[in-house]
Amino acid sequence: MTSNIPPDAVGRRILCNGEYGTVLYVGSVPPTAGTWLGVEWDNYQRGKHNGTHEGIQYFKCRHPTGGSFIRPNKANFGVDFLSAVKKRYGLNDDVQGTENETETSLVIGRKTVERVGFDSIKEKQKQLNTLNDISVDDCAVSLAGPEDEIRKTCPSILFKKKKIAHFLHTCNQNKMKFPATSLPASGAFCKLRVLALNQTGVTWAEVLLCAAGWPALEELYLASNKISVLQRPIDVLQTLKWLDLSDNQLMDGNQLQLIAGLSSLERLILSNNGISSICFPDVGFGRKTRMFPSLTHLVVNGNKIAEWSVINELDKLTSLQSFDCRNNPLMDTDKNIETMKQLIIAKIGQLKFLNKSQIFPEERKGAELDYRKTFGSDWIKAGGNQDPNKNRPSEEFLAAHPRFQLFCDKYGAPEDGELKKEQPYSLKHQLLSLTITCPDKPDQKPIKKKLPDSMTIQKVKGLLYRLLRIPGSELKLSYESSKMKGKEFELDNDLKPLQFYSIENEDCILVRW
Which CATH class is domain 13-74? Predict the structure, then answer.
């Protein structure tokens, strides 16, 4: 801790007993003597008031109990970037030998340590010009420091001539003071590729003010900064491929439209923001948006997404291939989790991974066929018809099911016998009455069985092994719908349940080996 108060103390970030805050006042607080710091804490529960003492307002806090007064010697004002680098990489002479020092050992405080290799490690750390990566994580960095000194101390990282340096500048949990006005472009960080500013208190506006100095930036980590408002990047961050905005406060999903012009962005992480809606209003349903043209990975875990309209909107993204949406109300309903996954797969046509699980072609086909059956009755009620000349589904239906017509074009319009009817959720309705036949073995009599619709194909094969004495690994299964005679559907994924393939009562399972 330091008792010296910097001349620019007001507005500076401090650390006190593990809590971060911002100095908003320096001066006396009568009737007590001496100098006080008026601090607004990041954690408002650490404070006691809103900057008022005995009826006098010394400073203002955003939260009514977010402020308090502390003595200057309790405050750690942090260090500049270069000081943190010197300390982290052994440029400060912090290790002192004693008269007990020998050629083979070194006394540090009360402990004796072996000197073997010690000098070479220390010398290697001192050679900053050979390092490609620098981290100042947890070093209490609060300001950058002189650019010329940074350039002089870290020439290899900042100005490597023969190859582009991969400079990982990590400032996690270092509460920093950022400029209030836009900075001119500088060559100091012209080769910066990855920048982590998690838990630094930075706002999106401050990022944009600094971004001109990061012309080659590809990955930006801004987690846990209480960011609630975005602004449109103008001529900055255009090389950005990875953006982490998790654990912030972007509850208004419309804010995302302001960064949708980041044409190189491939991965966007929005976990734990309280987002309930996402919309791309530049195009209607069934069309592709111009927003986020390169976005392939989207993560929205731990938000408040509860409406299928959000999933419909994501189908508008041109390049989306991977989507993570765990711990959202939409996925926490009473319905079967496999059913929810199938609906998402059917609704987002270009998706290849869902919650980190690969989507195989047969899985997509099954999801789309099941979707077509599930909502076929609604389609007919809304004006859909198997006759193309009479097929006029309402705008409301098309908005809720923008890909339904595509499924009709791909697999044919659903026939009356295929349409699913809602059934009460009870055990008797989970049991399927099925006929098991061996078409290549006419001597084998058909077997009638009642099987739960949650039974996997692998377990069905195990049952057939016991019934027919045929190794399950040699079995090939398919099924024929009782409502579509002569048309077989292959059961080709051992891990999927019968319900995945939309098998219904009185259907027939065909067994071959």
Answer: mainly beta
